[in-house]
């Protein structure tokens, strides 16, 4: 022993080995390298054909000696999948060649089937854990994948006739999902990652997750409930950004002012600086959230590795607001326009919000839906006029608005009156005002009910708005 | 991975085995005065492989053909002159029906159906079998299956 790390020379070129046709590519490479002769390769193929013949009989329950070509190909793929499971166990490909040369293929196949069975059982156990620990989130794709698609895979998967099948590939996206892997090995990877992501999502309050999702839907202008969105990514991003804004990792809501802090902190950084900032934030995130599961720690670091470049690009192209989910709450306090006209909803999104509001019976949920989902004044007024709010619900919506938004609404309702009263809201006799809609009447009732200080503040905002005009 | 690529690499060896299996049927058909020559056996194997290819099927032994020969050789309508040619046609009828009935009928039953139709309704005429009886059989088979499906759905 010299004490040096010696890597053994092997004539096998690992880049020529195909993970999805491992044994066949290993035979080809072994033949090229002179490690196995043609006769043995033919012998192996003949033995595989005998296994296939036997499998065809089992598949047809002994009724038929022939099957359609696609069925035979699928059965052959299934056989090689199990053989690969065994030959792929050896870290050194040459050891795999030795096994193929010395052992009976039927025995190798049998050992492979045992491995596939073991992985299947592991994956099924993981599936049961995931179903039991399912998150209570309004994500249709997640819910369908966890409660229907994944369990269905285990009902239909056949180790014997379709070991390579991944027929039940799932719609819920993961941040790391290697689609090159097939069969039950793919399913085990998928479920392992889903389990890790679920563990992370569980660290946050349900109500915070709901709010963050609503902000995500609004920001990306999508119906997040029906879309294939990855929850882990949304939460880890905002948790990291929350830390960068000086808040705790557990706090997911980021206001406009906090966003500004983040933007300034990240402006002008190069890749290494960005990586350093995010790595440091990741360390704090792991500490603050008391994450001690090694696989979750590793998963977060792996994610952050790729995240640095994304954030850097977003900062450079001034698109950081597409990654950071900025809450609409308290927007009037940050100054500037309360409603953002450029963020009008598409007709489809608008219809969806109105339908949801109609179906919703909880006033808090309704207010939350409007505050987080509607950003432009026009949309806001359209929602108020859409017959989806009733009685006190209007007042509840107005109560959630800041002074600037209330001033914008006042200016919309009392435009003529303000002109003839020097833009002073206090001079308008609201009792005599003829409201043209239910929401206007509700608004007047709401403003009249405000205390003097708040009323004056809204009045000041009205004056400020008219002076800008 | 495609099967043809694997078969091609071991084609000649496999063909020899298949011809030899085909010739073994002579031991059973000899008693009816029916014999396949080596050339006829080789041609039958060739035709069978082409049929499997054109009907999109895979069969790794000659068992179905042997059963077909065993059943057909007992037919009172068969003679040595048209023996090899008839087997060729019956092989096609077999794989055609296999596909048309969507693999739902096992080999033994299907062979029984074919020889039954040939001996009873067609008086030994393969031409009649292929021209009239097969289509009638398939039509009736599909109708029955459809009715069964309806009943199954209705029962749910």
Could you explain the architecture of this structure?
The complex is a heterodimer of chains A (469) and B (156). Chain A has 469 residues and is mainly α. Helix content of chain A is 62%, strand content 1%. In chain A, α1 crosses α4 (93-102), α5 (105-132) runs antiparallel to α6 and α8 packs parallel to α14 (363-373). The model of chain A is unreliable at 330-337 (pLDDT under 50). With 156 residues, chain B is mainly α. Chain B has one domain. Chain B starts with a helix and ends with a helix.
Task: Give start-end ranges of low-pLDDT stretches of chain A.
Answer: 330-337
Helix content of chain A: 55-70%
Overall pLDDT metric of chain B: 88
- Measured distance between first and last alpha carbons of chain A: 85 Å
The overall strand count of chain B is 1
Query: What's the quaternary structure here?
Result: heterodimer
Proportion of β residues of chain B? under 5%
The SSE string of chain A, one letter per element, is: HHEHHHHHHHHHHHHHHHHHH
Shape of chain A: elongated
Report the average pLDDT across residues of chain A: 88
Largest sheet of chain B: none
The rounded Rg of chain A comes to 31 Å
The shape of chain B is: globular
> Tally the helices of chain B: what do you get?
8
Beta strand count of chain A: 1
Kindly report the greatest chain-chain contact and the residue count on each side: A-B, 25 and 23 residues
Order of helices and strands of chain B: HHHHEHHHH
Largest sheet: number of strands, sense, barrel closure of chain A: none
Structurally, how many domains make up the residues of chain A?
A: 3
Topology:
The complex is a heterodimer of chains A (469) and B (156).
Chain A: H1 22-32, H2 38-59, E1 66-68, H3 69-87, H4 93-102, H5 105-132, H6 140-156, H7 183-201, H8 206-220, H9 231-244, H10 256-266, H11 271-288, H12 294-316, H13 347-359, H14 363-373, H15 377-384, H16 393-399, H17 403-413, H18 415-420, H19 438-448, H20 452-468
Helix pairs in contact in A: 1-4, 2-3, 3-5, 5-6, 5-7, 7-9, 8-9, 8-14, 9-11, 11-12, 16-19, 17-20
Chain B: H1 3-9, H2 11-24, H3 26-29, H4 38-54, E1 57-59, H5 63-73, H6 80-100, H7 107-121, H8 126-155
Helix pairs in contact in B: 2-4, 4-6, 5-6, 5-7, 6-7, 6-8, 7-8
């Amino acid at each position: 022993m010299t004490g040096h790390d010696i890597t053994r020379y092997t004539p096998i070129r690992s880049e020529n080995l195909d993970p999805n046709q491992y044994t066949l590519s290993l035979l080809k490479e072994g033949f090229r390298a002179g490690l196995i002769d043609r006769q043995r390769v033919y012998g192996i193929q003949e033995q595989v054909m005998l296994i296939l013949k036997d499998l065809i009989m089992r598949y047809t329950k002994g009724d038929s000696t022939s099957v359609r070509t696609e069925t035979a190909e699928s059965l052959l793929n299934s056989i090689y999948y199990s053989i690969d499971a065994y030959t792929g166990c050896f870290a050194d490909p040459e050891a795999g060649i030795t096994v193929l040369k010395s052992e009976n293929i039927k025995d190798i196949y049998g050992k492979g089937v045992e491995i596939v069975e073991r992985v299947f059982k592991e994956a099924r156990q993981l599936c049961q854990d995931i179903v039991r620990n399912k998150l209570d989130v309004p994500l249709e794709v997640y819910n369908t994948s966890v409660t229907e698609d994944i369990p269905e895979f285990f009902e239909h998967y056949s180790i014997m006739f379709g070991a390579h099948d991944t027929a039940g590939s799932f719609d819920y996206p993961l941040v790391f999902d290697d689609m090159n892997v097939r069969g039950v090995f793919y399913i085990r990877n998928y479920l392992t990652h889903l389990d890790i992501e679920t563990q992370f999502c569980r660290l946050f309050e349900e109500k915070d997750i709901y709010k963050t999702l609503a902000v995500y839907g609004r920001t990306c202008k999508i119906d997040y409930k029906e879309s294939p969105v990855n929850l882990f990514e949304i939460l880890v991003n905002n948790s990291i950004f929350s830390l960068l804004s000086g808040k705790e990792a557990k706090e997911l809501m980021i206001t406009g002012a906090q966003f500004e802090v983040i933007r300034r902190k990240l402006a002008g950084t190069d890749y290494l600086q960005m990586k350093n900032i995010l790595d440091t934030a990741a360390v704090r995130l792991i500490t603050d959230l008391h994450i001690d599961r090694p696989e979750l720690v590793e998963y977060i670091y792996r994610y952050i590795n790729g995240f640095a470049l994304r954030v850097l690009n977003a900062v450079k192209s001034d698109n950081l607001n597409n990654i950071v989910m900025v809450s609409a709450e308290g927007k009037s306090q940050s100054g500037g326009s309360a409603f953002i006209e450029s963020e009008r909803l598409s007709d489809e999104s608008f219809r969806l919000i109105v339908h949801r509001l109609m179906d919703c019976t909880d006033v808090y949920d309704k207010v939350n839906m409007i505050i987080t989902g509607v950003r432009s004044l026009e949309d806001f007024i359209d929602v108020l006029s859409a017959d989806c709010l009733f009685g006190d619900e209007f007042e509840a919506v107005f109560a959630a608005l800041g002074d600037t938004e209330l001033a914008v609404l006042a200016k919309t309702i009392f435009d003529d009156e303000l002109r003839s009263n020097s833009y002073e809201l206090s001079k308008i006799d609201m009792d005599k005002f003829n409201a043209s809609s239910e929401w206007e009447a509700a608004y007047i009732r709401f403003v009249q009910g405000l205390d003097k200080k708040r009323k004056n503040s809204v009045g000041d905002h009205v004056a400020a708005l008219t002076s800008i005009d | 991975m495609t099967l043809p690529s694997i078969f091609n690499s071991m084609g000649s060896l496999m063909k020899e085995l298949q011809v030899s299996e085909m010739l073994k049927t002579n031991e059973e058909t000899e008693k009816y005065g029916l014999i396949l020559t080596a050339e006829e056996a080789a041609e039958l194997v060739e035709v069978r492989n082409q049929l499997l290819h054109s009907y999109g099927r895979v069969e790794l032994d000659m068992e179905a053909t042997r059963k077909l020969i065993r059943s057909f050789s007992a037919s009172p309508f068969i003679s040595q002159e048209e023996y090899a040619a008839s087997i060729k046609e019956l092989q096609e009828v077999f794989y055609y029906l296999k596909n048309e009935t969507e693999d739902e009928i096992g080999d033994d039953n299907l062979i029984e159906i074919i020889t039954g139709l040939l001996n009873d309704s067609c008086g030994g005429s393969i031409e009649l079998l292929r021209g009239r009886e097969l289509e009638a059989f398939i039509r009736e088979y599909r109708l029955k299956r459809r009715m069964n499906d309806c009943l199954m759905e209705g029962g749910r």
